[in-house]
Target: Menaquinol:cytochrome c reductase iron-sulfur subunit
Amino acid sequence: MSNNRVSRRQFLNYTLTGVGGFMAAGMLMPMVRFAVDPVLAKKGGGEYVLTEKKVSDLTEKPEKVDFTYEQADAWYKSDVTDNAWVYKDGDKIIAISPVCKHLGCTVNWDGDPAHPNQFFCPCHAGRYEKNGKNIPKTPPLGPLDQFQVKEKDGFLMIGKVIPNTMVKQ
Ligand code: FES
Model:
């Protein structure tokens, strides 16, 4: 007969350790889940936002188009309204980012009467051509970014920001 019998003390130790571990895991799991939840959450990257702009109303003149999307900052979600300068180039729809590549101010189309048909940044008089190309001898050192675009049921959709595809650097 084997002499490996479990004593009453050992049995109690095993049982209490097991139950204690189970309870500790039950308390810690929700905390760990809460701490890493933003990391596990699916990101909305690459999604398009529907605007109220009809594609048929776009012209060759850049027009400011607003769009709103939900932004998740860890556990905090908020609606953010952004805008793009959108125009038609033949059959193509071009959406230019309004964020100046110098220090991030907002550019306007035709914002400087002395330099019509250009994007103008009022902060340090930065200027860009219609395709976003920065004009030499003004502060910006690179072209304005673009947004990805597509059409849904005749309305414009704006996607993520991408580097300018029309300007060779
Ligand atoms: S931030 Fe636009 S020119 Fe400086």
Observations:
- The first strand starts at residue 49 and ends at 54.
